[in-house]
Amino acid sequence: MAARGRPSEAGPAEHHRPCPCATQGWTSKGAFRACRRGGLTPEVFPGVRIDPESGLAVHAIYLDAGGLSGDRITVEGEEARHALRVKRVREGDVVRVLDGCGGVAECRVIGAGRSLELEVIERRAAAPTAPAVHVYSATPKGPRLDQMIDELSQAGAASWRPLGTKLGVVDPGEGKTERARRIAREASKQSQRAWVMRIEAKAALQEALSQAEGEAIIVADGSGAPYRATGAAAVRLLVGPEGGWTEAERAAARAAGAVFASFGPHVMRIETAAVVGTGVILSAEAREGSVKPGWT
């Protein structure tokens, strides 16, 4: 998983030749010019192309599903204001437009006034990453929930659901849930995800433990062995409260056929365990060859 501005170890997108920007050191204008001299397409990491004119990573814009139709796209409201005032997008710049449902369009800015007028250069549909990691967790206190949603989105989780447990102390209301959805959408732009992480309704433990075809259920708990790849099409990761699981909850999980797994040598906070668990699962499944290429 590459940070913004750093190279990825996974290599460039499959339709590009290898690029020094993606394989050597920090992205720089020097590396950018070297790529251009060699006739290569510079990239910061797979799927995040740099503008061939400026040498900078393209800005991502989010539009609701259905907003990518046609050869011209008009961006208005907060998305346009942010692009124009904060990101300083100007005519001639290349931007990436995402609809959060797999739609991706590379566009060139042909008008930058009160709104952005875009001309579509390339349009494609990106498949979600498999396996889909669905995180069910107790809700962290205060701003730690915002942090968890942001980082789960970056890590590649497909969805998050608050989980009702015996020792959980936070019950997120509608306001927190809507805020989590906004954060997930913003995080998808930052990480340039083609699919926005879904924020779903609270689930009781019994519901979280109900088996679904092709889905593995993993309980994060220090009593388990280190996580091993399952090869399942989807993985449901259950993370308990900071007070831990009760013996009755552990017994219910075992009876449902859930697998207990450890994700590190130390006790973690909810938000840490959820993000680390997601990363470990996707990494382990990738080594077994079950993760499909593409963006989440």
Summarize the structure in words.
With 296 residues, the protein is α/β, with parallel strands linked by helices. The chain folds into three domains: 1-54, no CATH class; 58-125, Ribosomal Protein L25, Chain P (Beta Barrel); 132-287, SPOUT methyltransferase, trefoil knot domain (Alpha/beta knot, 3-Layer(aba) Sandwich), CATH 3.40.1280.10. 28% of the residues lie in helices and 26% in strands. It is built from eight helices and 14 strands. The chain has helices at 20-23, 29-37, 77-86, 144-155, 174-191, 205-208, 247-255, 270-287, and strands at 43-45, 48-49, 59-62, 72-75, 94-98, 103-112, 116-125, 132-137, 159-164, 198-199, 203-204, 215-226, 234-239, 259-262. The strands form three sheets. Strands 8, 9, 10, 11, 12, 13 and 14 form a seven-stranded parallel sheet that branches. It has a five-stranded mixed sheet with strand order 3-5-6-7-4. The chain has a two-stranded antiparallel ribbon with strand order 1-2. Strand 9 (159-164), helix 5 and strand 10 form a beta-alpha-beta unit. Helix 4 runs parallel beside helix 5 (174-191) and helix 4 (144-155) packs parallel to helix 8. Mean pLDDT is 82; it is low at 1-49.
